[in-house]
Amino acid sequence: MKRLVVSALFSMIFYLSGVSHFKKEAMFLKIVPSYLPFKRAIVKYSGILELMIAVYVLLGKNRRAVRKIVQGFLWLVFPANIYAARKRMSYKDESSSVIQHVIRLPLQFVAIKLAKWL
User: Fold this and answer.
1) Which residues contact 114 (CB under 8 A, 6 or more apart)?
2) HEC states along the chain?
3) Are 74 and 94 contacting, i.e. CB atoms less than 8 angstroms apart?
4) Whole-model pTM above 0.90?
5) CA quadruple 106, 18, 83, 101: dihedral positive or negative?
6) CB-based contacts of 104: which residues, under 8 Å, 6+ apart?
């Protein structure tokens, strides 16, 4: 039961985030650290990867590989979340965005731990 709930949650989050990479591209472009080239490609490919992860998590096949991919992806995007928090980047409302970034950082570790149940 725990695996089913965690898988559904992860799949939903990755799906919504993946779609957001295309619908709200400008927002995601802002959180790609300035020292990285090819920002648009990074946003597009990470969105595609998130959509693929959403599907593979639901399929439930090769769980070990999916778990490692999810955990690796979460580690990979962690610097972008730190960058966004440090630069106090906003989405719509300045104050809530900073709070979102600060909350997201420790939640990233929780997500990495939860991924072991995928």
Assistant:
1) 6, 9, 10
2) CHHHHHHHHHHHHHHHHHHHHHHCHHHHHHHCCCCCCCHHHHHHHHHHHHHHHHHHHHHCCCHHHHHHHHHHHHHHHHHHHHHHHHCCCCCCCHHHHHHHHHHHHHHHHHHHHHHHHC
3) no
4) no
5) negative
6) 81, 85
Among all chains, which residue has been given the structure tokens 């490609």?
41
Rounded-to-10 torsion of CA 44, 38, 101, 105: 90
What does the pLDDT average to over 29-40?
90
Over residues 69-97, the pLDDT tens digits come to 999 999 999 988 888 888 877 766 555 66
